[in-house]
Give the backbone structure.
Amino acid sequence: MSFGFYSSPEYRKSQSDIAKSNWENGTYSFRIKPLETRICKNPDCNKTFRVKPYDLKIYCSHHCSAHIGNMGRKLSLLTRHKMSMSASLPRSLHKRRILPRISLVCVGCGKKFEVVPYLAKKRKYCSSMCAIKTIGSRTTSPKASKGKPGIRKDIDPNICFYSTWEANIARVFNLVGLRWVYAPKIFDLGQHTYRPDFYLPDFDMYIEVKNFLGTYSLERHILFKRKYPKIKLKLLLKSDYLKIQENYRDLIDNWEGPNAPYPKV
């Protein structure tokens, strides 16, 4: 049950005044010290202000601090012009850095789009859908191709894994005696294709190893679930892989990665 006077402006003001008074006097806790009264170090100001004892503030305002800090500082006409233009902007724009935009041409559709400078070397497509239409025919995502592809002779001399994570998962399957087939089937999703990393015949399930589930990979996964709802597909994400790594890396001699065990003598 709430009383109406708790919301009245008079009551709230009185409580605020009491709280401020107790805070300044240090009566809330033995750890809270009263506020100190200081004199502004600006000789043209000399106003008094109150701060907490541990605060290093010596000026009453930013204006006094800038006035003393900029004394004797010579600014070029260009710098003054930039400062004047910045001061004329709305206050909402002062809180974030405004970067110039760079115009690019989409590799897929040829449409022009703009990005900030630090994304100019990475962005090739105007949107995620445009990227999917262009590179969707590939059976693996662009992120997977940046792993360490190659043949692992300790697993199978005829299989080229796309990453160390895939190779380590195959080693775990061999250790526990689980039958597996590497990327046996390509699924047509319309816009692009999808080729899961492993197939487990004993469970009739596909396994996809994912270090990072980005927009491209998530879009493929959603399209796969919509078109093939009866097919079992499990995503083995980073959290799952780290748990497997913690349990099995010391049991496998050829484990790859930064947390690989020391070679046995």
Q: What stands out?
A: The longest strand covers residues 205-209.
